[in-house]
């Protein structure tokens, strides 16, 4: 017997969340067989508020007549509650997002609706959406928190999907940055076979940034292969990705050197667990500083979380022999790494990149935050602030992450 509300397209119900949670705990009965409070999906508006970009490099415009997505039989509809604002949203809006070929990505869906660090609640489930497991953690149900990540759809058949690296899917993968509308809208349809189902006991305000900045930082630290007591440098340590990289590095016992610009970021970085802070604006040579702190050897690993070519300029020079540079932040435009090939060969360096992570990786980082081991530093602001937030991102004025409140969690 199914334990979720299997609803036909023309007979979906929306159930009061607290009632549903109680029902779920008390019974394993099929929900449609129960007498529950419900209202028809037809009570949803046909149009909604959305923050649209009509053309790349254009301004953010708030409209109220954007269509509410139609939900396919294999999709769910979610009401968006909160979403982080990622630097990639800014680059896509500005037409400066870099692609795998090193060129700018200009082929995006227009009007563009960004937002890929979103948290919503499922409010409708298509009739063909299947629960593939009997476990509560994988149960698709009305009222459940769901993540709106960078990846929206994958093929599940290509060699990367089969290898658990579906973020590199080559079978027609789509994302919420270039191909599909993201979380800067009130309602979003999501692929029922690729849902990021989240536990009920999360804080929806803080979990959004985990879904892009967090997973990228986590994978960068993981790819460094850092061991307890080893030195790890985080460049851009006070930013959205960087402040989480500092915390993941601490979780694995690394000694962290935080690098960022301005003395006002010092206390913030040290409060995250960094042992040392280097203000790149006030030292003549960052590399010399790192060498001095690590007693001349250099760091075992560097995570570059900053989206700036200048941040990458000396990154590999901070490494000791055999060290790893993990590239997480993508600078705007098409800059190249300037590290000397001689340095890479003679020092035996490893240079790795990381594009977000798989759904499995994502659930690992969600759990670290749910358990309180990694806490995003967020500032919750009204949705209307989005244009201002973009400006502040461009001017490097944000500590941690700004999270926009899209709707009440009712
Ligand atoms: Zn992002
Ligand atoms: Zn695939």
From TrEMBL:
Keywords: Metal-binding, NAD, Oxidoreductase, Zinc. GO terms for cellular component: cytoplasm. The keyword Amino-acid biosynthesis does not apply. SMART domains: PKS_ER. Its cofactor is Zn(2+). Residues 58-404 form the Enoyl reductase (ER) domain. GO terms for molecular function: alcohol dehydrogenase (NAD+) activity; zinc ion binding. The keyword Oxidoreductase applies. Belongs to the zinc-containing alcohol dehydrogenase family. This is Enoyl reductase (ER) domain-containing protein. It comes from Kwoniella newhampshirensis.
């Amino acid at each position: 017997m199914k334990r979720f509300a299997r609803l036909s397209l023309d007979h979906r119900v929306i159930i009061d969340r607290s009632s549903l949670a109680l029902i779920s705990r008390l019974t394993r009965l099929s929900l449609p067989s129960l007498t529950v409070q419900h209202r028809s999906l037809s009570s949803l508006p046909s149009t909604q508020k959305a923050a649209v970009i009509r053309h790349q490099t254009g301004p953010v415009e708030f409209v109220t007549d954007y269509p509410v997505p139609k939900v396919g039989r294999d999709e769910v509809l979610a009401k968006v509650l909160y979403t982080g604002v990622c630097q990639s949203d800014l680059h896509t809006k500005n037409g400066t997002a870099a692609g795998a070929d090193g060129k700018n990505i200009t082929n995006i869906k227009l009007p563009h609706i960004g937002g890929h660090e979103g948290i919503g609640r499922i409010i409708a489930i298509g009739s063909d959406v299947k629960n593939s497991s009997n476990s509560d953690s994988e149960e698709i149900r009305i009222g459940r928190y769901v993540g709106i990540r960078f990846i929206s759809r994958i093929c599940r058949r290509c060699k990367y999907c089969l290898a658990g690296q579906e973020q590199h899917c080559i079978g027609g993968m789509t994302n919420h940055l270039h191909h599909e509308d993201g979380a800067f809208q009130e309602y979003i349809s999501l692929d029922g076979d690729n849902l990021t189902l989240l536990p009920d006991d999360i804080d929806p305000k803080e979990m959004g940034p985990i879904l892009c900045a967090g997973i990228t930082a986590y994978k960068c630290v993981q790819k460094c292969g850092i061991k307890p007591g080893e030195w790890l440098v985080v460049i851009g340590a006070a930013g959205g990705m960087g402040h989480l990289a500092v915390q993941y590095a601490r979780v694995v016992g690394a000694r962290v050197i935080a690098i960022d610009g301005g003395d006002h970021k010092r206390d913030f970085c040290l409060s995250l667990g960094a042992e040392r802070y280097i203000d790149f604006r006030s030292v003549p040579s960052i590399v010399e500083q790192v060498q001095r702190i690590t007693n001349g050897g250099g760091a075992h690993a560097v995570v570059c979380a900053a989206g700036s070519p200048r941040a990458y300029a000396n990154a590999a020079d901070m490494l000791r022999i055999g060290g790893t540079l993990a590239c997480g932040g993508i600078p705007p435009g098409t800059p190249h790494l300037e590290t000397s090939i001689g340095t890479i060969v003679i020092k035996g360096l490893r240079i790795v990149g990381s594009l977000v992570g798989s759904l499995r990786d994502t659930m690992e980082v969600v759990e670290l935050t749910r358990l309180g081991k990694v806490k995003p530093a967020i500032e919750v602001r009204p949705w209307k602030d989005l244009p201002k937030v973009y400006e502040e991102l461009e001017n490097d004025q944000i500590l941690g992450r700004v999270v926009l409140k899209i709707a009440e969690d009712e």
